[in-house]
């Protein structure tokens, strides 16, 4: 009998659907179909692969509202964010549809002949994604991987498989061959691990926690299999006294409470220059209290629920023994419509550098605020973490912006902004936040191996 798991709506805590849980044999069968589909796909003219990806993008765009509504139910994302995510998937597909015709090699001068390099696809790529942004993170892997001539097997998180399953159906509707892009639902320890160990999966892309990422990387190392890792973060939002403090304070809640803080790029530490510390907190409080937490289907909502009851307990545990400065609101447990959802109010904590809340990833709507003394202290504190994914720098001094952005060890930084993700610029982390880069102009090339051929003349 096929084993199943239940998908829950985090807004109501009610079941949505039963999903089949693939075992190792079913995973192997999907990988075998991918091997066959990849051969035909890679032999198509580049323009045909480009056309196929554009067709996939058009079908996704035509179903964007349906995908967005599905994400609201499965992930509790506010509808405005979910609409952005669905359109983003179509844009990522369109962007990498330009890649098949641009994967040029080189002609290198040599004596006695001609030397040429080719970018050849790996074959089958296994992509493992987490529950926080199920559609977008999947597309960062599958769009460039397909563009480079690979087949893809995709494993969504068991908590949030619904939009990935629908994307798999839409790929077939758009005309992609059976087996070229297969969504396999099941647990990480079975399906995900099989991607790592199966000899026909030639590259793995893993997005998730640093601890599981390390296991995946160790498994890939045993197979000599390349792996891209997008892992956790504890990103700093650095606010200097010479910044536009009103703007910095107004933007700070969105930088950490977006997606209820379940965002690898969440600026979950706000580091404020000591001379501006009190004024910044005064400005931050009304901005946090104005953050609207509630029904994600409501157009006016800024933040929905956390993903699960157990995740809510984990987030709450981080507040033990902390100095909470102020909190926003969240639906109460006696609310007849929303009371069973996994709500958690936006929370601001005053912290010291050695506090757990200032060092570990919470992955919830909790931010630690810490003072710093000068520019060197700001860089030291920003780097005083195992992670190095994202960060923001608020200052009106251009020289300082340059110095600090070069000094902070993070893969993606923004100055006077909290923007982290644009599909046309590279994204990824340093230190314990990951290995390799996704998105940007070079991502399709990352799904190829370089072959060098010497022709004697
Ligand atoms: P994980 O528990 O690491 O799970 C991520 C994915 O890996 C899920 O699909 C999971 O499957 C699967 N998995 C679990 N154990 C596995 C194993 N032994 N082998 C192979 N796959 C396995 O992370 P999460 O709790 O879903 O996500 C939160 C974390 O992801 C946070 O740390 C966050 O910072 C990070 N994250 C990083 C980024 C970027 S871009 N850097 C983006 C989003 C999230 P099941 O859960 O279905 O079993």
UniProtKB/TrEMBL annotation:
PROSITE patterns (alphabetical): ALDEHYDE_DEHYDR_CYS, ALDEHYDE_DEHYDR_GLU
Family: Belongs to the aldehyde dehydrogenase family.
Alphabetic keyword roster: Oxidoreductase
Top-level taxonomy: Bacteria, Bacillati, Actinomycetota, Actinomycetes, Micrococcales
Active site per the UniProt annotation: 230
Domain Aldehyde dehydrogenase intervals: 3-453
Protein name: Aldehyde dehydrogenase family protein
Alphabetized InterPro entries for the sequence: Ald_DH/histidinol_DH, Ald_DH_C, Ald_DH_CS_CYS, Ald_DH_CS_GLU, Ald_DH_N, Aldehyde_DH_dom
Database matches in Pfam families: Aldedh
Taxonomic source organism: Microbacterium yannicii
